[in-house]
C-alpha cells in the first residue's frame, strides 16, 4: 500500500500553515498525528497533492481555564488530555475518554483536533465532545469562526470545516458537580468500539453521545431530554436510538448495535446518576 505522489511542507507557525493551505486549496491537507490521514492515503482513498505538516506547532497545544469553559488547542495530544489536572477537575469525562483511545503509542502521537476534524463516527472523542456540547473554532485567511456542536459533523468523514480552514481550538463548557460515564463495547482492547456511549449531566444540562451508531457521531437528543427531565436510566435508554442510523458490517448487525446502544446507555446513565 503506497500513497500517491505528494509534496511535503513542514511549517513553523500557524500563519505559515494558513498561507500554504490557501495556496493549495482543495489539493492540500494538514498532517498532525497522521493516524487518520496516512492510512487513507495508503489505500488511495485520499490523494492530497500537498501535505502540510503542523505536528510541531506548539502554539496550538494547550489546555486552559477560560472562565466558564475550558479551551483546548487542536494539536493537544491525547496523552495530555488524559493526564491534565484541569480536565480531571472540570471535565473528567473527556479525560477518561482520551485514556481509552488506541494504545499509549497512539495517545502520545495523536491529537484531539485530528480526531475531531477527521469526523469518524467510530472515534471516541467526537461523540464525547458532542455529549459535552463543545464548540469548535476554525481559522482561515479571512478570520476566525466558531462552529456550534450539532452543526460540525455533516456526513461520513465530513465536517463543516472548509478546505483552507484548520481547526484551531475546542471550547467545552465546564461540567462539575454532576455525574458522567463512558461505556465501550469492542472485540479487543485496541479495536474501534462496535458501539460506545458517553453521558454527562451537570447543573441541569448534559448530553448523551453515541459512537459508531450512524454516518456521523450522534447526539442522542430524545434520550438526553428524557434523562434531564427525570426519566429513569432504563426509560431514557429505550429512546437512545431515535436519532441513530446504525449500519451493519462484519462486526455487528443493525439490530445488535441497537441492542448494545440501549444496554450501554442504561449502564452509563446509571453510573452518571449515582
Name the features:
274 residues; Uridine Diphospho-n-acetylenolpyruvylglucosamine Reductase, domain 2; 12 helices; Enolase-like, domain 1; alpha+beta; globular; 24% strand; five-stranded antiparallel beta sheet; 14 strands; Uridine Diphospho-n-acetylenolpyruvylglucosamine Reductase, domain 3; 3 domains
Structure description:
By secondary structure, this protein is of the alpha+beta class. The protein folds into three domains: 47 residues, Uridine Diphospho-n-acetylenolpyruvylglucosamine Reductase, domain 2; 111 residues, Uridine Diphospho-n-acetylenolpyruvylglucosamine Reductase, domain 3, CATH 3.30.465; 94 residues, CO dehydrogenase flavoprotein, C-terminal domain (Enolase-like, domain 1, 2-Layer Sandwich). Helices cover 34% and strands 24% of the residues. The chain is built from twelve helices and 14 strands. Strands 4-5-10-6-7 form a five-stranded antiparallel sheet. The protein has a four-stranded antiparallel sheet with strand order 11-12-13-14, sandwiched between helices. The longest helix has 19 residues. The protein is globular and about 55 Å long.
Amino acid at each position: 500500500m503506497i500513497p500517491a505522489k505528494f509534496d511535503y511542507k513542514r511549517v513553523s507557525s500557524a500563519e505559515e500553515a494558513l498561507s500554504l493551505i490557501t495556496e493549495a486549496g482543495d489539493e492540500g491537507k494538514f498532517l498532525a498525528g497522521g493516524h487518520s490521514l496516512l492510512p487513507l492515503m495508503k489505500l488511495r482513498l485520499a490523494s492530497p497533492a500537498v501535505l502540510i505538516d503542523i505536528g510541531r506547532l506548539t502554539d496550538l497545544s494547550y489546555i486552559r481555564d477560560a472562565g466558564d469553559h475550558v479551551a483546548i488547542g487542536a494539536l493537544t495530544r491525547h496523552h495530555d488530555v488524559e493526564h491534565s489536572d484541569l480536565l480531571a477537575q472540570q471535565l473528567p469525562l473527556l479525560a477518561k475518554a482520551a485514556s481509552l483511545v488506541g494504545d499509549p503509542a497512539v495517545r502520545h502521537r495523536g491529537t484531539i483536533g485530528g480526531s475531531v476534524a477527521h469526523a469518524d463516527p467510530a472515534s471516541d472523542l467526537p461523540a464525547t465532545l458532542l455529549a459535552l456540547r463543545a464548540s469548535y473554532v476554525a481559522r482561515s485567511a479571512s478570520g476566525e469562526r466558531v462552529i456550534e456542536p450539532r452543526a460540525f459533523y455533516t456526513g461520513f468523514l465530513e465536517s463543516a470545516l472548509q478546505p483552507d480552514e484548520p481547526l484551531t481550538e475546542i471550547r467545552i463548557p465546564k461540567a462539575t458537580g454532576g455525574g458522567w460515564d463512558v461505556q465501550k463495547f469492542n472485540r479487543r482492547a485496541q479495536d474501534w468500539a462496535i458501539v460506545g456511549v458517553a453521558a454527562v449531566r451537570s447543573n441541569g444540562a448534559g448530553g448523551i453521545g453515541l459512537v459508531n451508531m450512524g454516518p456521523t457521531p450522534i447526539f442522542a437528543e430524545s434520550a438526553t431530554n428524557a434523562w434531564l427531565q427525570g426519566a429513569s436510566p432504563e426509560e431514557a435508554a429505550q429512546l437512545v436510538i431515535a436519532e441513530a442510523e446504525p449500519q451493519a458490517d462484519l462486526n455487528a448487525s443493525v439490530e445488535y448495535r441497537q441492542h448494545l446502544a440501549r444496554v450501554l446507555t442504561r449502564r452509563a446513565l446509571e453510573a452518571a446518576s449515582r
